[in-house]
């Protein structure tokens, strides 16, 4: 069982969460060329090792999180709120990495 | 090498079955090969076999980082069917099923292919209508399909949960020619067949790097030294992205996910068909092996992973699916469960295609469908490598289909790899 230390709720089993996907994908501007959208939507680094990914605490606080997890060992290296401003206003026990 | 026959088995019986030869050699790698296939799984071995058999290619090696058939070949639920609907998938999987029908004879090796019927339950009028569309389409394109009403289904499979199900069973769509086979025998049969054609199967030989020169791969660095190559085929489901990056080609439309499968302790024969259902968030498939074990599986573990081991929430989920449809199994004990690494692609369909490098060919992205696809995958991948152009049957399994807007999304799930189970 993977345990994720939710900044809002504390440590919980991963069964409470829903996996989002690769958190490093950045979507281009709406009017960017189709090739850029193709790459963002369809191509993946598919990291073997530590990757940044999103999880949704869907059966808990329903907040989105950014998790650094090893895809071979399943070890979790860090958990951050996906939305820093939300974390600040809710006084989450760990501060955001970057301002909203 | 001995050709197997009833007479050869009888004769060996007179000497206690002790004088059988090795079924394939264990050669040292040569410094150079005309064709190197990376990955001695089912698809890699089948490719090497058909390269020799259909195209007369010589001087071929198959490199395997572990042992032959130790990856997904031994980590699946062995189901074979061709009930695909999308143009492209339809012809491809039908061709595969036809190759399965003659595979034991072709290989002179009993792969224990059993056409025991694939029974897909439905639980609502909408699901019945969708199945009617699919199975009519199959019949119109040269395949077989039947509808079983509740009376027929109860007669054929009496112990499904017909009484207390949350989503009552109302019938089933059936492909009688579908079934399953013995996965190890498929790997061994293809390995033996390839070896007979002179293919070197080199185990414990991990590819660690690729040397490029002028838009081509010239050699592979391996744990057993450098090997020069004229052509290279990748058939490494689960690790396709890693090899792709070794070739310096960037990113693939693939994510690696875990899929678990399960086998129970052996029990007396009680299920003659492959039974599957998917309703109310459930996704489940089950059959009984010749040894008596119930072999079954369900969804992915839902998060990306390269670990060949599954997690407990899915064990619970799949167990619930089992007892929901076959309550009589509730006290049968689980014997083993295992996990394989799936190449989950962005539309749920595979790639058998050329690459930006002139002599590198890709076979990847098999999602849940790799086992049944084995013969046709090897057949067409060999054809692609030998003739340096895709056969029209696999022309749409290329990497550019997303930019053309020609996704082959059988499930209609969109570009999220984990949803294409």
Description of the molecule:
The complex is a heterodimer of chains A (100) and B (421). In chain A, strands 3-4-5-6 form a four-stranded antiparallel sheet. A two-stranded antiparallel ribbon of chain A has the order 1-2. The termini of chain A are far apart. Chain A is of the alpha+beta class and 100 residues long. Chain A has two helices and six strands. With 421 residues, chain B is of the alpha/beta class. In chain B, strand 1, helix 2 and strand 2 form a beta-alpha-beta unit. The longest helix of chain B is centred in the C-terminal third of the chain and has 18 residues. The radius of gyration of chain B is 22 Å and the shape is globular. Chains A and B meet through strand 3 and helix 1 of A and strand 12 and strand 15 of B.
How are the SSEs placed, and which strands pair?
The complex is a heterodimer of chains A (100) and B (421).
Chain A: E1 3-6, E2 10-13, E3 18-22, H1 34-42, E4 50-56, E5 64-70, E6 76-81, H2 84-89
Antiparallel strand pairs in A: 1-2, 3-4, 4-5, 5-6
Chain B: H1 6-14, E1 32-38, H2 42-55, E2 60-63, E3 79-80, H3 89-101, H4 103-107, E4 118-122, H5 125-140, E5 146-148, H6 150-156, E6 171-175, E7 179-180, H7 183-196, E8 200-202, E9 207-213, E10 216-222, E11 225-234, H8 240-246, E12 254-264, E13 274-277, E14 284-288, E15 294-304, H9 312-325, E16 334-345, E17 351-354, E18 360-364, H10 370-387
Parallel strand pairs in B: 1-2, 1-11, 2-8, 4-13, 11-18
Antiparallel strand pairs in B: 3-7, 4-6, 5-6, 9-10, 10-11, 12-15, 12-16, 13-14, 14-15, 17-18
Quick take:
Chain A has 100 residues and is α+β, with helices and mostly antiparallel strands. Helices cover 15% and strands 33% of the residues of chain A.
- What Rg of chain A do the Cα atoms give? 15 Å
The number of strands of chain B is: 18
Series of secondary-structure elements of chain A, N-terminal to C-terminal = EEEHEEEH
Report the total helices of chain B.
10
Count the helices of chain A. How many? 2
Whole-Å distance between the termini of chain A? 32 Å
With strands numbered from the N-terminus, the spatial order across the biggest sheet of chain A is: 3-4-5-6
Task: Note the run of SSEs of chain B as H and E.
Answer: HEHEEHHEHEHEEHEEEEHEEEEHEEEH
- Give the % helix of chain A: 10-25%
């Amino acid at each position: 069982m993977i345990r994720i230390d939710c900044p809002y709720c504390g440590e919980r089993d991963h069964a409470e969460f829903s996996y989002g996907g690769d958190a490093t994908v950045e979507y281009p501007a709406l009017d960017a060329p189709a090739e850029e959208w193709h790459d963002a939507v369809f191509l993946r680094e598919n990291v073997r090792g530590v990757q940044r990914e999103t999880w949704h605490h869907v059966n808990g606080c329903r907040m989105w999180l950014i998790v650094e997890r090893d895809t071979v060992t399943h070890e979790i290296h860090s958990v951050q709120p996906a939305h820093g401003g939300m974390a600040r206003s809710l006084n989450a026990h760990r501060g955001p990495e970057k301002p909203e | 090498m001995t050709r197997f026959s009833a007479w050869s088995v009888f004769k060996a019986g007179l000497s206690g079955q002790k004088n059988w030869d090795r079924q394939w050699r264990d050669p040292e790698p040569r410094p150079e090969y005309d064709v190197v296939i990376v990955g001695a799984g089912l698809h890699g071995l089948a490719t090497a076999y058909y390269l020799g058999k259909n195209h007369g290619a010589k001087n071929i090696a198959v490199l395997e980082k572990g042992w032959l058939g130790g990856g997904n070949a031994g980590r699946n639920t062995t189901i074979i069917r061709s009930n695909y609907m999308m143009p492209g998938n339809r012809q491809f999987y039908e061709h595969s099923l036809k190759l399965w029908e003659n595979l034991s004879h072709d290989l002179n090796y009993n792969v224990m292919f059993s056409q025991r019927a694939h029974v897909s339950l439905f639980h609502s009028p909408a699901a019945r209508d969708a199945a009617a569309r699919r199975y009519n389409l199959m019949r119109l394109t040269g395949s077989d399909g039947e509808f079983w009403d509740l009376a027929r289904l109860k007669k054929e499979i009496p112990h499904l949960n017909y009484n207390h199900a949350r989503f009552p069973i109302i019938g089933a769509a059936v492909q009688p020619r579908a079934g399953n086979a013995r996965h190890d025998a498929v790997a061994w049969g293809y390995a033996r067949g390839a070896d007979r054609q002179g293919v070197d199967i080199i185990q414990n030989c991990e590819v660690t790097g690729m040397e490029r020169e002028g838009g081509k791969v010239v050699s592979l660095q391996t744990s057993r030294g450098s090997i020069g190559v004229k052509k290279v085929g990748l058939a490494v489901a689960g690790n396709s992205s890693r090899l792709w990056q070794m070739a310096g080609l960037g990113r693939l439309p693939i994510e690696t996910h875990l899929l678990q499968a399960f086998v129970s302790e052996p029990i007396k024969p009680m299920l003659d068909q492959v039974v599957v259902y998917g309703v109310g968030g459930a996704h489940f498939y089950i059959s009984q092996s010749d040894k008596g074990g119930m072999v079954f599986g369900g969804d992915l573990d839902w998060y990306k992973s390269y670990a060949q081991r599954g997690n407990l929430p899915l064990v619970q989920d799949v167990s619930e699916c089992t007892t929901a449809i076959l309550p009589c199994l509730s006290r049968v004990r689980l014997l083993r469960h295992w996990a394989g690494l799936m190449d989950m692609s962005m539309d749920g369909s595979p790639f058998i295609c050329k690459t930006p490098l002139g002599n590198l060919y890709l076979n990847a992205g098999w999602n849940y469908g790799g086992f049944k696809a084995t013969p046709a995958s090897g057949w067409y991948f060999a054809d692609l490598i030998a003739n340096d152009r895709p056969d029209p049957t696999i022309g749409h399994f290329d990497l550019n289909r997303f930019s053309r807007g020609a996704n082959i999304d059988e499930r209609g799930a969109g570009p999220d790899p984990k949803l294409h189970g």
